[in-house]
Specification:
Layout (H helix, E strand, L loop, with lengths): L2 H25 L3 H25 L5 H15 L4 H17 L14 H72 L6 H28 L12 E4 H15 L5 E4 L6 E4 L1 H18 L6 E7 L3 E7 L23 H4 L5 H13 L3 E6 L4 E8 L7
Parallel strand pairs: 2-4
Antiparallel strand pairs: 1-3, 4-5, 5-7, 6-7
Helix pairs in contact: 2-3, 2-4, 3-4, 3-5, 4-5, 5-6, 5-10, 6-10, 7-8, 8-10
């Protein structure tokens, strides 16, 4: 096949596709579109009649029907309603508002021009409206695909964090228990207590991760949202500190409650879990004996929670990915505790499900984690 022949076929094929698309748009009409067309034309005719009776002039009557064509093209699907409305509009102008009244006179000067102009306006407006609707549909589908891709990414990061953070304490438990069983007769009391203590710490860490995973299961996978009810900010903060103290009695936490009594829509258990995770990470990874500060700032449309430590901070190259389930810190192995991965990944999942944002940054001394929740009406579902 020659190049010219191929171009001719492409041209013919493109023309056929364009013709098919036009015909598809032309006949894409429903009873709803017909009802809208009839209703808008009726309103335009009534408005034009009132104007004609008041002004005794038919000069601007056509403008009422032109506006009607714009509304019909915008509110209906396809080209047929607009084309039909253009024809009906020209007939109405000729029959109702042009002498001789209540008679059709197709020999009037300018009648063909009026008909053609209104028909062209209708087709162009219908085409533009159809194109805008199609673009809006494409954008909505693209946003949905991006949201699904983000959810898949979060699931993958969560699974990666789970596989890493579960393996570490399990390895420790297996190693400590094996050492105890193999060398029990050679170990003194203090060494035995140390091995059992390590087993207990790793078991508690596993329990914490299981609680986090159970927390995530409360988030509906279909809509990535949560059931919310109005909860007082200060009670949520106090309960989170109480839960942390049960797990880590020696944790040094300073709570700064807001002066204003505020209730915001949230799942209190999930937000408490976020605060517990952030404070626990600060206790284990800050490398400081100074108190960890937990406070809330009340804004006009949002409430922001902060957990601030005065420790070693976070490596700058890890700040952007610290909530992606890969947040191992440099001091994780040094201080004997596991990484931040799964806890912070779950924090992000919970906050995003609440329609909020979460971030981390370094201060002049230490690090600060913060998340923002919107102040709004609680969902009733």
């Amino acid at each position: 096949m020659t190049q010219d022949g191929g171009k001719a076929m492409d041209k013919n094929g493109g023309w056929r596709r364009g013709k098919a698309a036009f015909l598809n748009q032309l006949w894409q009409c429903t009873w709803k579109d017909a009802a809208i067309t009839f209703g808008v034309l009726f309103i335009a005719t009534a408005a034009a009649f009132v104007y004609y009776r008041i002004s005794a002039s038919n000069i601007n009557v056509v403008m009422f029907y032109t506006l009607a064509l714009l509304f019909i093209s915008r509110l209906t699907s396809g080209y047929l309603p607009g084309i039909a409305a253009a024809m009906v509009s020209v007939v109405c102008v000729n029959y109702l508002f042009t002498y001789p009244y209540l008679q059709l006179n197709f020999t009037l000067d300018g009648y063909p021009v009026t008909f053609i102009c209104m028909l062209v306006v209708s087709v162009i407006t219908s085409a533009s409206a159809s194109h805008m609707k199609q673009q809006s549909r494409i954008l909505a589908e693209r946003e949905k695909m991006l949201a699904e891709a983000e959810k898949e990414k979060m699931r993958a990061n969560l699974l990666r964090a789970v596989s890493h953070d579960l393996r570490t304490p399990l390895t420790g438990i297996i190693g400590a228990s094996s050492s105890y069983l193999e060398t029990e007769e050679k170990l003194d009391t203090d060494e035995k207590r140390a091995l059992v203590s390590h087993i207990g710490e790793d078991a508690n860490w596993l329990l914490n991760m299981v609680e986090n995973l159970l927390t995530v299961t409360r988030i509906r996978n279909d809509s990535a949202s949560v059931n919310k009810s109005l909860e007082p900010v200060e009670e949520v903060m106090s309960e989170a500190v109480f839960r942390l103290k049960k797990r880590i009695p020696d944790a040094n936490i300073r709570v700064l409650l807001p002066e204003e009594f505020v209730m915001i829509p949230m799942d209190a258990t999930l937000i408490e879990q976020v605060l517990v995770n952030l404070m626990e990470n600060a206790v284990f990874h800050a490398g400081s004996t100074e108190p960890i500060e937990c406070r809330a700032e009340i804004g006009r449309d949002t409430v922001t929670f902060f957990v601030t430590d005065q420790g070693v901070g976070i490596d700058e190259d890890k700040l952007e990915t610290i909530f992606d389930g890969t947040g191992q810190t440099e001091n994780s192995s040094a201080d004997g505790h596991k990484g931040m991965g799964i806890g912070l990944s779950i924090c992000k999942t919970i906050i995003v499900a609440h329609g909020g944002t979460i971030s981390a940054r370094n201060l002049e001394r230490g690090a600060q984690f913060g998340f923002t929740l919107p102040r709004g009406e609680a969902n009733e579902d």
